Amino acid sequence: MLGTAATRQEPSPPERAGELAEIVLPDQEGNDVRLGDLWKDGPAALVWLRHYG
Amino acid sequence: MQLHGARQQFEAAGVPLVLIGQLTPRHAARFRSSQHIDLPVLADERRASYKAAGAKVATFGELLGPKVVAKGILTSARTGRTQGRTLGHPAQLGGAMVIGPGNEVLWSHMSQDAGDNASPEEILAAVQPG
After folding, report:
1. pLDDT per residue as tens digits for the range B84-102
2. What is the sign, positive or negative, of the torsion defined by CA atoms of A36, A38, A39, A44?
3. What's the domain range around B69?
4. Which CATH number characterizes residue B51's domain?
5. Which secondary structure element, helix H or strand E, spans residue B79, and what is its range?
6. What does B16-62 look like in DSSP terms, one character per residue?
7. Which residues does chain B have within 8 Å of residue A20's beta carbon, measured at their own beta carbons?
8. Residue A33 forms contact with B (CB below 8 Å)
9. pTM for the full model?
């Protein structure tokens, strides 16, 4: 139901963000952003939203 | 959105604050407009970054269990905001992460259930060590 998981999962944040760094996502205007560029020169805070709204 | 209110503190710390949502840039733009926020919002239709960040998919209880619903009601009462229509994968949970040069994960808080969200203060503390 609602695409829920059948069994409880544990969050599994990585110790290093190499895989995240290579992901390219469009921003709200459609401009591609490579995630690794966000923290190339200093820390960046990323927040993954559960939903819009 | 609480994070929008804290954006100046992130700016003062010199730390970019970026939101990532599901679906398309059009949805991201609509979200920014409806929530009156000027933070950048990236659109992750395939949820690739969610998976790479270790975000979990909730069980039914973690999504709509009594404790989660109660927390949602309290949050709505405190903030005056109610949840709108859910877009995207309804059971996908989110989280927050602070990442530094060299791909070092400096701090993370990935949600255990739908009511488990890091506060702006927690994230700010992670970007302002000491």
Report:
1. 667 789 999 999 999 999 9
2. negative
3. 2-127
4. 3.40.30
5. helix B66-79
6. -EEEEEES-HHHHHHHHHHHT--S-EEEETT-HHHHHTTPPBPPHHH
7. 49, 52-53, 99, 103
8. yes
9. 0.88
Adjacent-strand bridge partners of A47: B19, B96
Q: Please give the pLDDT value at position B62.
A: 92
* Number of structural domains chain B divides into: 1
> How many residue pairs from chains A and B have C-beta atoms closer than 8 A?
211
Q: Tell me: the pLDDT tens digits for B13-71?
A: 999 999 999 999 999 999 999 888 999 999 999 999 999 999 999 999 998 888 877 77
Interface test with A, best of B30, B97, B107, B122 (most A CBs within 10 A): B97
Three-state secondary structure call for residue A28:
coil
